[in-house]
């Protein structure tokens, strides 16, 4: 799963089996790959870039120029990742595997993708 910045100088990749979000910078013939967010340990934890945990990322999309929206498939949540520092917030889903409508903390997903 990949999202591309509007100027095509950055790729954002959901590295699902490593449980992280990677950023690849492509400028002037120089390429740098780095971990933007995630500790590398499976889980579903919001917080700073190094504290955050993902569990099987299956979707990454840009939301404007400041955030990524990530589907955390086995975490059953939709998460927001701030591009400037990799910090993670919950967008929707309470982490239980279900199909429930509601606000951010009440809604439930069953292995979301996309």
UniProtKB/TrEMBL annotation:
Return the annotated region ranges for Disordered: 93-114
Q: What name goes with this protein?
A: Uncharacterized protein
Q: Which organism is it from?
A: Hemiselmis andersenii (Cryptophyte alga)
């Amino acid at each position: 799963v990949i999202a591309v910045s509007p100027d095509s100088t950055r790729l954002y990749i959901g590295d699902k089996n490593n449980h992280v979000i990677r950023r690849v910078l492509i400028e002037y013939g120089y390429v740098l790959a780095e971990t933007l967010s995630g500790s590398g340990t499976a889980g579903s934890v919001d917080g700073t870039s190094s504290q955050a945990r993902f569990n099987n990322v299956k979707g990454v999309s840009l939301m404007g120029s400041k955030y990524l929206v990530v589907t955390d498939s086995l975490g059953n949540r939709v998460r927001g990742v701030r591009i400037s520092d990799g910090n993670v917030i919950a967008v929707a889903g309470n982490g239980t595997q279900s199909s429930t409508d509601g606000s951010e903390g009440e809604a439930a997903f069953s292995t979301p993708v996309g």
